[in-house]
Write a structure and sequence with these properties.
Blueprint: H1 2-39, E1 42-47, H2 51-62, E2 67-71, H3 75-85, E3 89-93, H4 102-112, E4 117-122, H5 127-136, E5 140-143, H6 148-160, E6 165-166, H7 168-179, H8 189-199, H9 204-211, H10 215-229, H11 234-243
Parallel strand pairs: 1-2, 1-3, 3-4, 4-5, 5-6
Length: 251
C-alpha cells in the first residue's frame, strides 16, 4: 500500500514538474514572440510637394513607436524607393510631382510595391474623385483642409489593419456621392487611357487605333466621361479633368 502511495506521489510530482516546465516554456516563447513583434518596424514613405506637409507629417510619424520614416524627392525617387524598400505605407500628396498625374503615380507605386498601403493627401473633396481614387487602389484619403495632426496617425493605423480611411470632410462627401444616382460609373483604366489621349490632342479615330478599340466604343467612353465630369464638350471635359488632377499627363 505504501509502495502504491509512493508511486502515486512520485507520479504527481513529475506531472506538476512537467506542467510547470510546459508553462515556463510557453511563457518564454510568448515573451520571445512579443519581443519579436515589438522589433518589427513599420516603414512609411512620404512623397509630398509641400515642405510644410512633409515636415509636419514626419514629426507626427516619428512619435509612433517602431516607425521608420523616409522621404522621396520626386516621382522617380518615389518609385525607386518603393521598389527597393517595399514600405508598408506610402503617404502621397496629389501635387507631389507636377510632371506626373496622380493616377499614374498611384498605378506605378502599386506596381513597384504591391503590398504598400497608399494614403493620399488631396485638395479635392469631390466624392466622385475620392471614389475613383479608391477604385485605383488607394487605402486612405486625407482632405487637405482637414486637421492633419488629428487624422494622420489614425489613418496609418487604420490602413495597416487593412481597413479604408477617409478624413471627416472626405468621408462626408464620399457618402453623399455614393447615395447619388451617378455613382454607377467610375473612371476605369480604359477611360483614363482615352482621357490621356484626348488631353494630348488625339482625335477619336486616332484613339481607337492606338488603343485597339472600336470607334463607337471611344465615343461611348467619352460621353460617359462628359457626364462624369459635367462637361458639354471634349475641351470642357479635359479642363474639368485637369482641375481634378486627372489629366496633367507628361508628354
Amino acid at each position: 500500500m505504501q509502495k502504491i502511495l509512493m508511486t502515486k506521489a512520485i507520479f504527481f510530482i513529475h506531472m506538476r514538474f512537467f506542467c510547470v516546465l510546459t508553462f515556463s516554456v510557453c511563457a518564454r516563447l510568448r515573451r520571445e514572440t512579443l519581443k519579436g513583434q515589438k522589433k518589427m518596424t513599420t516603414h512609411i514613405l512620404i512623397a509630398d510637394g509641400s515642405s510644410l506637409t512633409v515636415v509636419g507629417a514626419e514629426t507626427l510619424l516619428k512619435r509612433r513607436a517602431d516607425t521608420l520614416v523616409t522621404k522621396a524627392e520626386n516621382a522617380d525617387d518615389l518609385i525607386t524607393q518603393a521598389s527597393t524598400h517595399q514600405p508598408a505605407v506610402v503617404l502621397l500628396g496629389d501635387r507631389f510631382d507636377p510632371l506626373f498625374d496622380t493616377a499614374i503615380l498611384i498605378e506605378r507605386v502599386i506596381r513597384a510595391a504591391p503590398a504598400a498601403r497608399i494614403i493620399l493627401i488631396g485638395a479635392s473633396i469631390d466624392g466622385l474623385v475620392i471614389r475613383d481614387l479608391f477604385m485605383m487602389g488607394i487605402c486612405g484619403y486625407l482632405a487637405a483642409g482637414d486637421d492633419l495632426p488629428a487624422c494622420l496617425l489614425t489613418a496609418v493605423d487604420t490602413v495597416l489593419r487593412e481597413r479604408p480611411y477617409l478624413s471627416p470632410t472626405a468621408n462626408a462627401e464620399y457618402l453623399v456621392t455614393m447615395q447619388a444616382s451617378h455613382r454607377q460609373w467610375q473612371l476605369d483604366p480604359e477611360a483614363r487611357a482615352v482621357l490621356r489621349l484626348l488631353a494630348s490632342g488625339c482625335t477619336a479615330r486616332e484613339i481607337a487605333g492606338r488603343l485597339n478599340l472600336k470607334l463607337r466604343r471611344v465615343y461611348w467612353v467619352t460621353e460617359k466621361m462628359r457626364a462624369r465630369f459635367g462637361a458639354t464638350t471634349n475641351e470642357h471635359l479635359i479642363s474639368r479633368a485637369a482641375a481634378e488632377g486627372f489629366a496633367n499627363f507628361p508628354g
